[in-house]
Amino acid sequence: MEIIQIVGLGLIATVLILIIREQKPMFAFLLAAFTGIYVFLFLIGKIDAVITVLQELAERSGIPGIYLQTILKIIGIAYIAEFGAQIVRDAGQESVASKIEFAGKVLILVMAVPIIGVIIETVIGLLPEGG
Amino acid sequence: MNIDVSAIFQIAGIGIVIAMIHTILKQMGKEDMAHWVTVIGFVVVLFMVVRLLNELFQEIKTIFLFQ
Predict the structure, then answer these.
(1) Which terminal Cβ of chain B has fewer Cβ within 10 Å, N or C?
(2) Which residue numbers of B have CB closer than 8 Å to A's CBs?
(3) Other C-beta atoms lying within 10 Å of the C-beta of residue A81
(4) Is residue A114 part of a domain?
(5) Are the beta carbons of A90 and A100 closer than 8 angstroms?
(6) How many domains does chain A have?
(7) Non-local CB neighbours of A86 within 8 Å, separated by 6+ positions
(8) Rounded to an integer, what distance in angstroms lies between the CA atom of residue B50 and that of residue B11?
(9) Is A1 among the domain residues?
(10) A69 contacts in chain B (CB < 8 Å)
(11) Where would I find the H helices in chain B?
C-alpha cells in the first residue's frame, strides 16, 4: 500500500508548506519542489519495471529497437517537461511554464519525425503504381 | 536512494528556524544580518533540492534515454 505513503507524504508536506508560506514563501516553494521530486523519484522505480517488461516484449516480437527507443525518449521528455512546468507553475510563473510545455511539445515532434517518415513511406509503398 | 523523507522535515525546520532568526535579528535592528541569514538558509535548502533534482534527472536519463 504505497499509495498511503505517498498521500500521507503529500498531506504532511502541504501542511508544512502552508505553515512556512506565511513567513518565507521561498522556502515554501523549495519544499514543494522537494516533495515533487521525491514523489517522482519514488514512481520512477515502478516505471523502470514496466519499461523492462515492454523492452522484453518488443525484443520477443521482433520490433526494431529504434521504435521503442524513440517512444521511451518521448515519454522521458514528456515526464521531465511536465515536472518542470508544474514546479514553475507552482511558483506562479505561468508564462515560463507554458514555454517549458511548448519546448517539450516541439522536442517530442522532432523525435517523432523519423517515425512519421517511415509511416508515410509504408503508405506510399502500399499505393498501387501509377494510380 | 540516499535522501529519505526526513529531508522534508529538515527543510521545513530550516525554514521555520530561519524565519524566527530573521524576526529576532530584525527586532534587534540588524537588518543586514537578518538578510544574510535568510540567504544562507536559502542556499543550504537549495543545495539539498538541487542534489535530489540531479538524482532524479540521472534516473530519468538511465531509464528513458539509454545513456
Answers:
(1) C
(2) 1, 3, 5, 7-9, 11-12, 14-16, 18-19, 22, 38, 41-42, 45-46, 48-49, 52-53, 55-57, 59-61, 63-66
(3) 19
(4) yes
(5) no
(6) 1
(7) A36, A97
(8) 13
(9) no
(10) 66
(11) 6-27, 31-64
DSSP conformation class of A62: T
Question: Domain range for residue A99?
Answer: 64-131
> What does the block give as the cell for A90?
507552482
Cα A49 → chain centroid? 16
Q: What letter represents residue A110's amino acid?
A: V
| Residue found by looking up cell 530550516 in the block | B14
Whether A53 maps to a domain, the answer reads no
**Residue for grid cell 521482433:** A62
Q: What is the pLDDT of residues B10-51, one digit of tens each?
A: 888 998 899 999 999 999 988 888 889 999 999 999 999 999
The whole model's pTM is what? Answer: 0.81
